[in-house]
Amino acid sequence: MTNDQITPEQPQPHLGSLAVGGQEVILTRAAAADVPAIVALLADDVLGQGREHAGTDPRYTEAFEAIDADPNQVLVVARAGGEMAATAQLTFIPGLSRGGALRAQVEAVRVAADYRGAGLGEAFFRWMATYAADRGATLMQLTSDRSRTDAVRFYERLGFVASHVGMKLPLHASGPTASASAESEPHQTRPGP
Amino acid sequence: MTNDQITPEQPQPHLGSLAVGGQEVILTRAAAADVPAIVALLADDVLGQGREHAGTDPRYTEAFEAIDADPNQVLVVARAGGEMAATAQLTFIPGLSRGGALRAQVEAVRVAADYRGAGLGEAFFRWMATYAADRGATLMQLTSDRSRTDAVRFYERLGFVASHVGMKLPLHASGPTASASAESEPHQTRPGP
Q1: Partners of residue A127 in chain B, C-beta under 8 Å
Q2: SS3 state at A9
Q3: N or C: which end of chain B has fewer CB within 10 A?
Q4: Does the structure show a pLDDT above 60 at A69?
């Protein structure tokens, strides 16, 4: 995809709309021009503030282009009165397990401070579940940081079950930061081309 | 992709190899012909046995074709002496958060009963971490059912941190199975085309 195709002038594909507290919220796929505002939302958060950079950092542009080029990624922005009110990324993951189930994974959910507590988060999730089911997904999944106890309660209220432990491993170019002892290190070949 | 391109006669792309307990383990991308054996591995499990069908069920063929057509999915099979010893699926997820981090998610990990306890699982994970880092991922993530306490300890030994709660919501064609009350139901439009 060339930059010409993702200029802000191109209309953003409409995905749906919600009525929240009497206000219309318009859902679209994110455009390149939305990236700084999405990054600002990601950073306006107790965990996010320590791990995001300026929204104009070229790493975000590259990541946006990878998302936008992949039909299994749907980066959604929710706007109320022209203002960005919320964002989330849906990833569709085909798999063999659970009878060949298509999973819809939700990452990077944020509701802008001015729009919290008004029901937008719940309406947005219900819309995402409908959208994902319409695309054939039979399971929606997400992980929430253990420290976000309010978020876990919110998801449980929507019907999510906290059945799993979510685990993360930072990777470095030289491999994992594993702490396992050296004698268990296997002989490894580099991945093929 | 036509079926001709995924016949068992086509050589499976080689990904790497491991030496585990003096035996060579060959890693390849899964081919269509591997699907029944992968499904048998998924089903040979206390949780999997209740949720898988016969490996020849067309839902698995369709799911395999979706995986195989998506460059962000890598369904790996590990063979020792021609026998399927392990499988796992890697999904590469581009995203804006954490500075535009590319995530490598691991799903559907299984080691065949005859190969457990010999270090294959650890060698396989170390290989996956290297492969993912070589493709530019800076974070590997997975969820493990809370009831698999041995698995959680295994992942912690590899350096994974159990920082998150993994939550799942079954989806039905009509939307989520949410238990929230009707008065909070938002007005929703159907997703656009």
Answers
A1: 186, 188, 191
A2: coil
A3: C
A4: yes
